[in-house]
Request: fold
Amino acid sequence: MKKTTGTDRQITRNWRPATQAVRGGTWRSEHGETSEALFLTSGYTYDDAQTVADRFAGDADGMTYSRLQNPTVAMLEERIALMEGAEACRAQASGMAAMTTALLCQLASGDHVVAAKAAFGSCRWLVDNLLPKWGIETTVIDSADNAAWEAAIQPNTKVFFFETPANPTLDVVDLKHVCDVAKAHGITTVVDNAFATAALQKPMEFGADVVAYSATKLMDGQGRVLAGAVCASEEWINEVLLPFQRNTGPNIAPFNAWVVLKGLETLSMRAHHQSASAVTLGAYMEPRVDRMLHPGLASHPRHELAKAQMSATGPIFAFDLGSRERAFAMLDALQLIDISNNIGDSRSLICHPASTTHASMTPEAREDMGVTEGLLRINVGLEDIEDLKEDIDQALKAAGC
Ligand SMILES: *Cc1c(COP(=O)(O)O)cnc(C)c1O
Reply:
């Protein structure tokens, strides 16, 4: 009997998550390669003129051009969709390509977007600058205030856009509540799930319509490539996203797609291990810092909610040392943990958001979203937790904490 490859939807949908992560979407060529093949090709050839005519007419399956389809990219898209429990997925060149595409493909001048105040710097730039410049109104709210979502709705509100947990203040959004409010008003929810991934949180189970990713982070997980993805219903992908994507070209390169495919095989193990280390390290540091922002610790105002909607709270947390001087003193004293603004990596990385990821915002806007001068954001990697504790301990001492 011929063994199934991971593209037979009937069969792969029934596989359990660990099986989907290593086999979902695998599409073997005639060579029967074990690992997914890397198709570095921009175009395709055809046996005859009618074949290509049929493909361009949409009457026959098959590839025509890598801005439209590529076998390696298709494998990644199928695997992400399976892991997400989504009907469909399209991969993008980066997380920001994914966010921009997910928003612009469905919005038009005169529409209104309600977005969370706490967000990745470039996501806030889209909301504060790009959308208004194109005649799309935006309202920014405190995403942890359940009532604020409904209160911000206008007759022209089309989209709710938020991340949870949010970058870098770790605000947690009540997924069920916000998705219910959106549904009741015919609003599309776009959830940036980069901090959790499907390994830790599945927004669609709470009613989210569109889940968008920076796959640069936990999905690759080893700091190698930029990548992104948008998951949604088959209908939304085909009718709303694809006309935009196919003609504007924010596509991922096949090589980067292949790297992320490899990352997905170990995503769940990494995400859970790094989450556990992040809880241990956060609890270890908490008595010595001014303010701890960690959804995995009881001190977080939405700790119970985070535990209820996530299987683990992720590798990232933030803490405040009170001033830029102290924060920089700690960074400069670290011997193992790298100063780096990436997250989701298997290496522990730490950054000062006010001078890096959120530097382009005004000091007032930063203050308003809780990005203070003493705030540091850490991504806890796969290193031995005792080595991480020792490095944190000596660096906190050097900063006078
Ligand atoms: C990093 C990040 C992005 C942007 O992703 P890139 O791959 O860097 O373009 C978007 N949202 C969140 C929450 C992120 O952490």
